[in-house]
User: Fold this.
Amino acid sequence: MKEEVSAVPSSGTGRGHNLPTGARYHVNADDPVSFDRVPLRDGDVVSVGASMRVRVLATPGHTFTHLSYALDDGGRQVAVFTGGSLLYGSVGRPDLLGGRHTHTLAHQQYASAQRLATELPDTAGVYPTHGFGSFCSATQSEAATSTIADERRGNPVLTRDEQMFVDELLAGLDAWPAYYAHMAPANSAGPAAPDLSTPERADADQIRKRLADGEWVVDLRNRLALAAGHLAGTLNFGLDGSFATYLGWLIPWGTPLTLLGETPEQIAEAQRDLVRIGIDRPAVQATGTPEDWAGSGDLATFPRATFADLVKVRHHRPVVMLDVRRRLEWAEAHLPGAVHIPLHDLLRRLDEVPDGEVWVHCAAGYRASIAASILAAAGRHVVSVDDDFDTARAAGIATLTGA
Assistant:
């Protein structure tokens, strides 16, 4: 018989670390964590209040120790918190633990999804931890809500046979952010109170010295503002996009980081986002304008353009077209004659960018601006294509590969 565990803290220390909120950590008993937790196993039931019960379901696939949680309220199974085992129209990717485990985990992911669909009623709501845009998802969906019945109808893991699903899943995997490699040890070590106090303020001389020392100085403004004027050598990771994802993916881990923002609120927002991926403390920060950060130095700029501009300029002079989208995006459609270097590979492959004027593009402009700032910092003549790739498709500029 499985154990019923209370989620309400006792008057003593009890099992599981009590958080300031009064909650406890409930974690798989097989996870080698170093903090106090309530150890859970398949079939355990956690009591929540007078009428709710949470049943623990072992659903390996995203990881070997992955758990899902089925919520029973007054005897009715109303929801399941599926984590990375069953996403909207997809599943969590099975390759985050390394290539030698991927095939095994893909088959386990299939079995776990089948279990959820079998043991939960069609009316149960599905609540995953990852949604549209997450790199933990094997494929993408724009759904915002779902039920078991919805997933039965449209999720490939529940509509394909096992081998077909596994083959399609493995073929569709693409790169994932490099900082993921640092998350497992951080999660095992457990939480610590982040230091979100404002970092030391840097003046123009200090900022220039940090740039000269090869440190990362990041401009948090949007790509329009950066292209119009920025401190030479700074890199653009705007807060208006997937800031932490791409900065965490590209920065050499442990590199001292300087944040430049227009307001203290931008610095604080960046700090909060970075703490969530394990970058706990920027070295210094500065607020104001590019003129403030440059001191007596000149500002740098680079032009922005559209795909229509790119077509026109190629009639007059040769330019390098650099596509920094991911592999699967490139395989679906790309510009004939373009050079493909995914953004996450650009720093280590800069010498592969051909000489000459570089027009860099992505799918919508955000990644292109990051890449343009990297290229400009390396002394390249760069133009950032700030346009939607769908316009290139609609105009017949892009080649559809059928891949």
Q: What stands out?
A: Confidence is low (pLDDT under 50) at residues 8-16.
